[in-house]
Amino acid sequence: MKYRQTLLLDSSYLPKNVIDSGRAFVIFMKGNCEIVKHYPKKFGLVRKDVDIYKPAVIRIKEYINIDYHSVPLNRDNIFKRDNHECVYCGRRDLDKKSLTIDHVIPQSHGGPNTWENLVTACKKCNGEKSNLTLLEYGKAIPSPKRPHYLMLMKKVDYIPNEWKDYLFF
Description:
Elements: E1 5-9, E2 15-20, H1 21-29, E3 33-42, E4 53-60, H2 75-81, E5 99-103, E6 118-122, H3 123-129, H4 134-137, H5 149-153
């Protein structure tokens, strides 16, 4: 897992995405990017006489207008945004199996599946809340927001040293 992801930079060296290192190598072979840094790990190839290092950071040569800022709405990204913490009781010592997604405004009351209405909750709090509104539940009202992709990148468990020159830490 340590060398499986590559940081994708735009033509001005701004971080745009994290992609699979195999995909990054294909983009390089097609001539659409340059490898800025590579990992000390090589791809496992059939030909043992060929050494190809896994790319750590690549830079797209030409500007391409792609919306990398649109973070996909899914469970993992909601958990990352909320720091894997229940928004109601604040418990942080939970694993993914103990976490659930809760609708701030319940679906039975017309609550949509949006960044602004979905939060991380432990099973206990989500069960207690059930389909109650927050006023009925008696807890503070969370105000979740759509995250920026860099916000989620800062919350990954492991950021390779090769990336740190290009991230704003």
